[in-house]
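Wait, mind explaining this?

_____
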Amino acid sequence: MKPPVKKPDCRARQIPPPRILSLMDVERKLGQQITDDAIAAGWLKHRCEKVTSVRQKPRRLFALDDVEAVEDRILCGEYPQPKGGATS
């Protein structure tokens, strides 16, 4: 009698992270306040816009590499300041 064949576990398969993130995904990764400040300071710029519906605004899409670069700067102790120089 042959031993039973083990089926591959679908959960064990690694799916690579997406290279393009929506604004909501960026806010989940960095936090809403940091995302807003990084966009206002020019640290984070959207790569393209995706039109999803005629009635809705286009969705801004960001590159994962840019988001990770902002995350690295935050971890190094920098914080994005708005270009106007307003500090509180």
